[in-house]
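Bit of a strange request maybe. I'm writing a small parser for structure token strings and I need a real example to test against, not something I typed by hand. Could someone generate the tokens for this chain?
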Amino acid sequence: MSRGMEPAGGPPDLVVVGGGLAGCEAAWQAAQRGLRVLLLEMRPLVFTPAHHTDGLAELVCSNSLGSDALENASGLLKEEMRRMGSLIMACADRSRVPAGKALAVDRREFSALVTHTLCTHPLIRVRREEVTVIPPEPAVLATGGLSDPRVTYWEPEKWVAKLRPATTSGKPVMLKINMDAGHGGASGRFEFLKEIALDYAFAVWAVEKGWEA
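Reply from user aminoacidic:
Good idea to test on real output. This should exercise your parser:
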């Protein structure tokens, strides 16, 4: 697995922990807006029972991303993501396989496209390591799953509790625990899109507020 180039201009402006769908999209959107991004992914050093490769954005439950029809919320959200320059949607469209009105992909091709795009982006560095402590970045969005057997839900809660009193800049340290998710994130036809939307909205909000540096 190749690594991306060292982000140009010095240390990263943004650290993204986790190379899943949401993490990859957040890293891409930030880099496309000129931020130097460090993306940390624990695989292949540490695997979960659901993962089988070291590729970024590996789909572990289903190769279907849900309906692509504009008549429903799932399809409409996908189209909005396309118009916003979504990496996930671009790679999904390129690796699409027949599935009626649903958007289904070839899992390996999809993951390979995302991995290659991020690892060759001049403003993104992909580093393979397990993160056991959240670094005290200027603006932090900590997420977790209630039923996560590897990173139990109280771990991000403890990290946030420690980080908040240590932050002197006044920049936010926020916490979101998904009450219906495990280690792989939200499941369902378009529940995972809500997680991507949350990360994307937080990144854009931080940039608009000038909290990325």
